[in-house]
Amino acid sequence: MFYHGFNKYMNHAFPKDELNPLKCSGRGSDKTNPNNIIINDVLGDYSLTLIDSLDSFVVFNDKAGFESAIRNVIKHVSFNVNSKVQVFEANIRVLGGLLSGHLFATDPRFGFKIDGYNNELLELAYDLGQRLLPAFQNSKTGIPYPRVNLRYGVPKSETRETCTAGAGTLILEFGVLSRLMNDTKFENVARRALFSIWNRRTDLDLVGNVIDIQTGQWIHTAASTGAGIDSFYEYLLKAYVLFGESEYLHIFNEAYSAVLRYIRDETGYLYRNVNILNGGLMSAWVDSLSAYFPGLQVLAGDLDNAIKSHLFYYNIWRKYRALPERFNFHLRNVEIASYPLRPEFIESTYFLYRATKDPFYLHVGEMVLEDLQSYARVECGFASVKDVLTKKLEGRMESFALSETFKYLYLLFDTENVFNKLDDNFVFTTEAHIFPLTAQYWKKTWKHKDNFTCSAYKNPKKLASSILERPDADIARELVGFEELSLPFLDPYGYCEAPQADPLILDVSYGEAPDSDGQLVIHVQYR
Ligand code: DMJ
Q1: Domain limits for position 406
Q2: What spacing in Å lies between the alpha carbon of 53 and ligand 1's midpoint?
Q3: From the alpha carbon of 344, which atom of ligand 1 is closest?
Q4: What share of the chain in percent tops pLDDT 70?
Q5: Tens digits of per-residue pLDDT, 344-384?
Q6: Distance set, CA 350 to CA 180, 194, 293, 307 (Å)
Q7: Does residue 48's CB lie within 6 angstroms of at least one atom of ligand 1?
Q8: Cys-Cys crosslink for 216: which of 141, 161, 266, 340, Cβ 3.0 to 4.6 Å?
Q9: Number of folded domains in the chain?
């Protein structure tokens, strides 16, 4: 359905960065106001949407569209532009898009190999990678500056404050670029940045939201699974999946345990902002970016927690027919009302459907699709929602709508899609770029020592077939303050079973004898 007219939207977005779906025109960076970071962090005058959606053509099985998009990129894109962009955004959307496009243009297994293609996208990716490197050059910690001018490097006045996700979401793209080019420098700087962040974790194994790249001091000390940190967790696990290096998995496991222990609340449905030093609550909202987390939990094999956290966002969506940027779980209302067609909730829905095959998730996808069709679809594409309460629209269709939101929706329903059947070493990046990395690019030292398998999903109730029939399914509805019952067919008043997260268990033991100061020694260990 949404694929119909895809090429039409692409033509509008090309050669500018992004489509204004209300005006049917393209938009590039805001040269009139260089401080407009909402626009200029992302739009670099480099045909952003075109590059970001290259592998969507592969998912939508459109070979002609893929070829023509690749040829347009080769013909028109240059990174020798006077654009100051965010390293994070340029990496996930542009570098990731180019690398994925290159992999499909060269790998015969998918049927998208392009005759006469001569690695031009890889050359563009290499050029972009080089232009991002100045962000790392004068950093004492190895954590990159958040922004770089693609022509002139890091401006002297550039801020030293960066968010954790900004610095910790580079390793997949930089690692793949290094391996394809046989040039280790990209992977090295990205790895150093990631470790540099992790090495500054607190005693609770939590990382903060914003850090000073020169001093390594945390500036904003809230830990969460949402904005500013989200894809840091994602890249730890996916770096392990793609590159097979156990170190990433070990760090992920430690980081994930701390998330469950301190960020997850006692109901087990809600993941909050807590202080990295003491685990104390720092705010009463969740953001829409954190809705990707259940998908990551699926990848980590933690289906029970994934199902629960997804139910929380599901009920917010039901309440507003969209996910507001911020939802206040204390007041149970909207704190920031926009919904810029973000993918995260749909991404999690997709991963949960793949893992459980519970038709409930198809129902969720259908709900999302119908909602988007009903209020966001306009003549030239889909428009961002300025206010989920009024459904007033604004003239932006961010590049991730085509790269992620519609890709995951499509994959949810297209059960025969090649990527739903692929038994291979591949990941979806945080921008949903697909990286199938063949063995020739694995490090020779990688011996496939780990042989982890996750247990298959077991439906907890023999007679009931769907997640919505779990006795605790209505808890999340209560938590978001949504009036409509989830389970009217079971009980007109709803039925709640008291929620319980796994208890935090402390082992306490006493030393056998007082120490030299005459004090009794007590050992405390978390389990
Ligand atoms: C995307 O660009 C990526 O998913 C990123 O990790 C977070 N934000 C947007 C979509 O919401």
Answers
A1: 2-447+457-526
A2: 14
A3: 11
A4: 86
A5: 999 999 999 999 999 999 999 999 999 999 999 999 999 99
A6: 29, 28, 12, 12
A7: no
A8: 141
A9: 1
Distance CA 493, CA 417 (A): 41
- Whether ligand 1 lies within 6 angstroms of the CB of 347 is answered as no
| Domain containing residue 238: CATH number | 1.50.10.10
Structural domain contains residue 90: yes
**Is residue 218 domain-resident?**
yes
Cα–Cα distances in angstroms (integers) from residue 510 to residues 90, 383, 462, 468, 506, in the given order:
54, 63, 46, 46, 13
430 is known to lie in a ligand binding site = yes
Long-range contacts of 115-118 (CB under 8 A, 24+ apart): 117/70
Tokens of 374: 């009903």
- In the structure encoding, which two tokens stand for residue 458, read together? 């077991």
Residue type for position 413:
F
Report strand pairing: 222-223 vs 218-220. unpaired
Crossing angle between the packed helical segments 120-132 and 96-106, to the nearest 10 degrees: 160
Query: Which parts of 302-419 are beta strand (E)?
Result: 326-328, 333-336, 377-378, 381-382, 384-387, 392-394
Q: Which residues of the chain have pLDDT under 70?
A: 1-15, 444-449, 451, 460-465, 485-527
Residues 6 or more apart whose Cβ sits within 8 Å of residue 440: none
Q: Is residue 198 part of a domain?
A: yes
Half-sphere exposure of 323 (CA within 13 A, CB side): 25
Residue 452 lies in a domain: no
- What does the pLDDT look like over 421-466, one tens digit per residue? 998 889 999 999 999 988 888 876 665 567 677 778 877 655 556 8
CB atoms within 10 A of CB 422: 13
| Token pair belonging to 486 | 């989830």
